[in-house]
Amino acid sequence: MADHAMQELAHEEVLTLQAMEEAMWRAETRFDPRFMDAVLAAEFTEVGRSGRTYSRDEILALKETEIDVDLPLTGFSAVAICEDVALVRYTSVPTRASRGEAHRTSVWVNDGRWRLRFHQATPTHI
């Protein structure tokens, strides 16, 4: 019988995933088409804080806008859920309380480099 226990990620991998996740919250990387094209997996999808689902193409086509979130990300954690797949969790906290906090979850896959496969946001208060 296979051992299905979650494995710890190396500390360096956790730091890499945190840096990559935080890059999604920096205008200079979030709105850089080459960066985002390299980071988003081909099958990427997102469920936004509003509940709307976004495709990879829709995310790549987003127009630059102000990003309002405290960095470093609050409560950041990353765990391996199987070989070459990591689950990232944190809470986005706006600096000016413009949209409210949201719990966020991302699935990252490593095919030689980490790529974002899925992201979901859930408001902390509905």
Please provide a written account of the structure.
It is a single chain. The chain has 126 residues and is α+β, with helices and mostly antiparallel strands. It is built from 4 helices and 6 strands; from the N terminus they run αααββαββββ. Strand 5 (102-110) and strand 6 (114-123) form a beta hairpin. It is globular, with a radius of gyration of 15 Å. It starts with 10 loop residues before the first helix and ends with a strand. 16% of the residues are buried. The model has no long low-confidence stretch (mean pLDDT 91).
Overall morphology: globular
| Averaged pLDDT | 91
Relative strand content: 35-45%
Q: Helix tally?
A: 4
The main sheet comes to: 6 strands, mixed
Structural class: alpha+beta
Helix and strand layout, with pairings?
Layout (H helix, E strand, L loop, with lengths): L10 H13 L3 H4 L2 H7 E8 L5 E3 H5 L13 E9 L2 E8 L9 E9 L3 E10 L3
Summarize the model shown.
With 126 residues, the protein is α+β, with helices and mostly antiparallel strands. Helices cover 23% and strands 37% of the residues.
Keywords:
globular; 6 strands; alpha+beta; 23% helix; 126 residues; 37% strand; six-stranded mixed beta sheet
